[in-house]
Amino acid sequence: MAPVIKFLVDDALGLWQALVALAMLAVVFAALARVVKPATWVEDGRSALPQARITMVLSVVDQLTVTPAVSLFVAWLGTWLRERGLGFEAPALWATIGPAPTLFATVFVGDFVGYWRHRAQHSKWLWPAHAIHHSDTHMTWFTLERMHPVDRFGSALDTVILAALGFPFWAQAGNVFVRHYYGYVIHADVPWTLGKAGLLFNSPVMHRWHHARDVPGAGWNFATVFSVFDRAFGTYHQPGPCEVPLGVREDMGKGAMGQYLHPLKVWSAALRPGRTKVILPAE
Fold first, then answer.
1. Residues 59-108 pLDDT 10s
2. Alpha-carbon gap, residue 241 to 204, rounded angstroms
3. In contact, 260 and 225? CB cutoff 8 Å
4. Counting C-beta atoms within 10 Å of the first and last residue's C-beta, which end of the chain has fewer, N or C?
5. Torsion angle, CA of 30/33/35/36, rounded to 10 degrees?
6. pTM to 2 decimals?
7. How far apart are alpha carbons 232 and 86 in whole angstroms?
């Protein structure tokens, strides 16, 4: 029983720490909204509250159940790959180029991997789970927390691939930190394009276009940190301020439970001949 009790205590402590971190972020982004949008920040916040409540439920359940499961999955898969020699080891390379270049390389490659993983999440069979993240019609920094468990496991593969490529563990952790917190920034409801810096980095306006409800084609703006990947692979789109409706066209059901059940219903129906087909953003 002792290991079980320790696991529960650690999980509860992790949830508490996560809630404290979210509270601090809420203060930071509320202050930012007050400065950037002094005339509308209060009303914008009120409008976002119904969606934020759903996201909060998803976030708490995620922290209590999904995050520990994802961590165990990543650790197991990484060990499995190492035991079979399916990975690279390059300690001499990282020692030679130094910590800062190593961290930059890890984040850059991690964002490249994440770009293609994200594009895959917009494909036919993965979209129903990823649609939960897109279903927020009042996107704010907090929308980053709105993820289905299936989507979370898919995103965790970024770290597994970086480990297999031989990036040091500390740099992998740095990649998660940088891309996660930059993810809050690009989801924030602020009209920033970053000017010339946008030639290299993703911006809140750029990512807001990614969450546009009626997206033609296969979608756009898939990277988290670096806009260069979308520019290089023809998925960059930032024609100006994003003032179009956000969200998805599917009926996601009611509340957080509807969000959890939505992909299961879609997949079940799609596997039965003559039943509902999967709706993609491209359709």
1. 999 988 898 888 888 888 888 887 777 778 888 888 899 999 999 999 99
2. 10
3. no
4. N
5. 170
6. 0.90
7. 29
